Amino acid sequence: MKGTLLVIALLLLAILLSLSVGQVMIGPAALWDGLWHGSGPGALFLRVLRGPGVGTALGAGAVLGMSGAIFQILLRNPLASPDVMGFTSGAGLAAIWGVSAGIALPIPLFSAIGGLVAAGAVILLATDRNGSQPPLTLILVGLGVGFFAAAASSFIMTRLPHQEATEAQRWLTGSLAARNWGHALQVLGLGAALTFALALQVRSLALLELGDDLAAGLGTRISRSRGLLALTGVLLAATGVAVAGPLPFIALMAAPLGARLTGARHPAGRLASAAAAGAIITVLADLAARAAIPGLQLPVGVMTGILGAPYLIWLLVREMETGDL
Amino acid sequence: MRFAFPVLLLVFAAIATLAAGVRSVPVPEIWHALTAFDQTNPLHIVVRDIRLPRLIAGLAAGASLGMAGSIMQSLTRNPLADPGLMGVNAGAAFTIVLGAFLLGRADGGFIAALSFPGAALASLGVFAIGGGVRGETGPVRLTLAGIALNALLMSLVSAIVLTRTEALEVFRFWAAGSLAQANVRPLLEMSTIAALGAGSALLLAPRLEALALGSGLAKGLGTRPGRIQLGALAVVTMLTGAAVSIAGPIAFLGLMVPPLARRISGHTLRFEIMISALFGATILLLADTAGRLLIAPAEIRVGIMTALIGAPVFIWIARRLRPGALT
Which of B118, B160, B274, B292 measures 20 to 30 Å from A303, CA to CA? Predict the structure, then answer.
């Protein structure tokens, strides 16, 4: 309970900080005023300047965090996440391809298809002769698929005119610059729908975590529920990629951080805390990207890379000491 | 005799590099351009001033990266080791950009001088994080250590590049990762360093083989594991630093070449390194030529070509690893 309150307090603090700090500082009182009266500088910052970006960051962080938690629980491996396994790179590639080819379909559709194709390729290529997918093979093959998607994205970018290529590069790093309420509502709406779908599957996720034999004994149809959970996880990640680009490391970091903050054990609690932790990290990373260098907005992906890479290094060193990896 | 096939392939790749392009040059004309240069013949100028530097750059960079991959795979006993994937390119990028940021200078020689310290730091770092000191560099661990280091360094590079235009210019020039600007790069100096690296690699090879038998056995044979490992990392740095100064960041070449070379060389490391040099140069030249032809008159950077070919090779090797050998 204490942990839950802590996470909620952190989330509110992150949102408040992110709304007030920037090129122009604005106090909580003015924001409060703007929220209730709908006029004055507070309202401008809330409605137009910073609100949409913060909303998009919240949504993107939450869906990426949940997606990471699903795969980490399913594969029982802290390295299993949609960014490490190449799903977000696949989603990013499809989005870049769709935009550069000038096809007038919504970006989330492209990123969903790209994420699903990448995930399908990873699962297919990692399947061994016995028809099973060892988690470490999945991770390695996923890394390879990610490398290929990244190379293909670079290839597409060389064919774009200079200005568009710079824009595409920024997007592929992961960016929340110039987001409007359309982006925020899109990620929050799709995210809410997918969260509902996920809530219906929490029971089978909890059973699958106990082990395949036990889950089957308790009446779970293993491959069907695993497939549905993976599908939900990929779609969640693709929803985040569609508005923020393939942000690195959020999905990897969110679940362990969230579980540490709340102390949640049950999958439902871990999914919720992963969503909250993902949102906190993304909002704070976006704030840091805006405020780190005066007069310049770094892509948020640069910040999550600077935060996430040391975490991955720490994870590797720790797993090495405990002998898990 | 074992060298006949790789050498023939390399000769073919070299001729293709000189002959193919937006303007294709017939083979007899290449010969004339090299032996009896005629200043008024545009074909001769294309061959001599544009494609010949490109050929030399491809030879030096490709051979260096092939050898560096072979040494890294032997040192880490890991078939997925590759200087580019392990963050050595990113290390070079980081020091180049940092130098440009602090000093505000940019030219070929400057880039070359700065790429070595970064390559050295990154190769040491990835080896240490990946568990090299304890002799436990499993594929998953080493690859992830490389990814983490790559991500960290490239995030820092983006942050620097976005704050300072000079740094951006330097980075763009270097990261273009192609052989196209070979004639403005310090080809001669870098080729010399690469040659020194190649010589040291061949000298070091027998000791690295002893090390591969296990550090206990290596000590018994009178070698000191720590020194050999440092020596090998120094050689990797020389070779990779030279290659990235000539051709920009190129990944996956060091991954693909050694397994091919092993089919011909068997498991003698000295032979493997020599054949890796030949195959590395051949594949880089062919990839570069293909990159010039596929979407002509535009060009696909050779670094993108090697990544498009190399990523499937990475998956193929990863699939063949037994689960027990992964950690």
Answer: B118
